[in-house]
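Exam review. A common question shows you a sequence with its C-alpha cells and asks you to describe the fold in words. Practice with the pair below. Do the first one on your own.
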Amino acid sequence: MLQLSLPLQNISIPDNTFKNLEMVLQSDLDFHGKNSTYATHALHAFPAKFPPQLPQVFIQNLTKPGEIVLDPMMGSGTTLLEAVLLGRKTIGFDIDPLALRISQVKVDPPDIGRIGELGEAILTSAREHFSQNPGELIDRLDQRFDSSSRAFINYWFTPATQQELIALLLEIEKIEEIRLRSLFELILSATIITKSGGVSLARDLAHTRPHRQSDKSPRSALLEFSKRFNQFKRSILDHPPFPEHLIAQGNAQSIPLQTNSVDLIITSPPYANNAIDYMRANKFSLVWFGHAIDELSRLRSQYIGSDSITQFPFLSMPPKTENVLSRLRDQDDRRAKAVHRYYSEMKNAISEMYRVLKPGKAAVVVVGTSIIKGIDTQTHHCLAEIGVESGFMVAGIAERHLDRDKRMMPARLNQQSKTQIEKRMHSEYVIGFFKPGR
C-alpha cells in the first residue's frame, strides 16, 4: 500500500472505524528509530515481537478509553501493555507458559517500592549459599528434576551455572507475594533467554534456533541477575492502577469470551511450519520453573504453526489458499500438510475473532510469510481470503519493513552466509479486518 505520513494520534473519527482503519494502514508502519524499551517493554527477550508503536497507533485511532482490546495470541504482551497505558481494558490469551509469565508481569508489575531491597536480599543470600554450601545446591538440583529434564539441564548449563541458578531460584521461591515472586522469576529467566550472551551454553537462543557451543564461557548467573535487576529498576515507571485486564492461558481457536464483546483485536500469529519455534528457546527457562521437558514437548505440538500432522482434522480452504497448498503438495507433501494445518488452525482462530468482535469494529492481524521449497505461502493473502470467507471485510494489507537491528530474528553466523529464514524475514504484513453490521 502507499505509505503516507499522517499525524494519526491527532485524528479521531469514532463513528467511522472502517475509514480510520484504512487510514492507519496507509500510514508509515515501520517505526524505525523509535524507542521500544519504555515502561516494561524491555523486561524480557521474545522473538519476532512487533514494536509497541504498531498496536499503539491502532488502539489510539480505533478505540476510546475504557473499551476492550483483545490479543488472543498475545506472545510477550506488547498489545496488552500498550492498551493499558492508553487507558483501555485489555484481554490476552496464549498457550505458552512463558508468554503468560512475561505478559502478566509487564501489564501488572508489583509496587516498585519493595523491589530494590528485596532484590539485594536475594542476591546476597544466593551468593552466600553458592559459596558456602555448593554440595547442598547439587543435592537440590538432583531432587528437583526428573531424569529427562536433568539431562537437558546438564547438556545446556555448566555445573557452576546450575548452582548459581538454583541458589537464586531458591531465594526467589521464598517470596510469598505472587506478583513479586513472578517478577524476580522473570528477571532470572531474562538471564537465560537473551539476544546475545546469556548463562547457558547455547548460541542464538533468543532467536529460537539454539546450538550448543561447548567452548563458550557462560556469564555468571549471579552477575547477570544483578545486571538485569538494576536495568529493570531504572526502566519501570511508578504508575497508577492500570485499567481492568485479564491474562489467561487459552487457545485462539476457542476464545472463552462472549459473542460481540470486544472493541478491537490486535494480534500476531506464529509463522507457518514452525519457522519460529518459540518452545525451542522458552524451555530453557521453563524447565527451571517446574515444567518437565517431556511436558513442554507435548505442549509444543499444540501450538498454531506446529509441524505435527498426525491425525490432524484438516479444513477445506478457499480457492487461492488451496492453490498455494496444491503447489506445495507437488514439491513436498509433508510440508504441504504442515502448512494446511496452519491455515486450518488460523481459519478457526479468525472465525473466533469474528465471533467475539463487536459489529462495526476492527481486527488487526500482523503476519509474516514463509518460503517453503521455493514457494511463497502468501500468508497475508491467504489469511485475508480466509477472513473474508469468515465474514470480514478487508480494509487493506500494509507491508512493514523490519528493523533487523531491533527485531529478534534468526541471525546469520557470518557476513557471507545467511540462513533461509533470514533471507525472507525482511517484511511482514498488517491485515486490517472489519466486521460489518452496524
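Now try the second one, then compare your answer with the model answer below.
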Amino acid sequence: MSLHASFAAHRDRFRLRVDLDLAPGEVVVIAGPNGAGKSTLLAAIAGQVRIDSGEIVLDDRLLARGRGLHVPAHRRGIAMLAQSPTLFGHLDVRDNVGYGLRAGGVRRRAARLRAQTLLAAAGLDHLARRRPDRLSGGQAARVALLRALIVDPALLLLDEPFAALDAATVLDVRTALTQSMRTETTRRPHRASLIVSHDPADALLLGDRLVLIEGGRITHQGSPTAVLAAPRSEFGHRYAAGAFIPG
C-alpha cells in the first residue's frame, strides 16, 4: 500500500504542514525535537485529528480532504501503536491479540484460533492464557504489536514504540517488529510503515528513509545514512551525534 499525505493541520496553536509520500512496502522513520509535530502527523493520518487543507490518500482511497471529507479512524484500515501497550487487563493474551477481530464481528472461537496461530508464529504461544499484569515490558510490547497486526492493516503507524522499554528488551522487540513489517500477507503484500523514534539506531536498522520534522515542517529527508552523515540543522547534528554510521 502507498500513502500520499499532503496537508495542513493544527492542534491548539500548533500548526503542521507536510508533504509526504510512502511507497508500497516502505518503512519511514520520523524524527524531530519535542513539539515538532511528529505525533500530530501520525494522528492526522490515523484519523484522530482533522486536517485543515490538503488531502490524505491511502493507495487509491481518499481518507481526508480539507475540512470536508474525513473518514473516521475506525474505517481507515490503519493500525496505530503508541508508546504504552495499553493491553486490556481483564483479557488474557490470546483474547487481547484477537480483540480487533472480535470488534470486527469475527466469532470468538475463530478469533482465538487466529490469535493462537499468530502467537505461535511469534514464539509467544506459551503466554496465551496469561493476563497482562504477568507480562514483562518486552512481552507486553510484542503482544500489542500482534494485536495491531492481526487485523492486517493497510498501514502501520508506530509512535515511539520502544520508548518505555529497557535497553536489554529493545533489541528483541525491534527484531520482532522488523520481521512483522517485512512479512507479506495475501491482502497486504506491500504494507507501508511509519515510525516515530528519538533513537537514530531505529532509523539505521528499520528505516528505508529518514524524515526530520522541525517546527511543523519537513526539513530533511533521504536514506538514513545520507541524512545522518550530512545534517542540515542544529537538531540534525544532535540527532546524528547519537548514531553509529557505517562506512
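Model answer, second protein: The mean pLDDT is 88. The two ends are 32 Å apart (CA to CA). Full marks require stating both points clearly.
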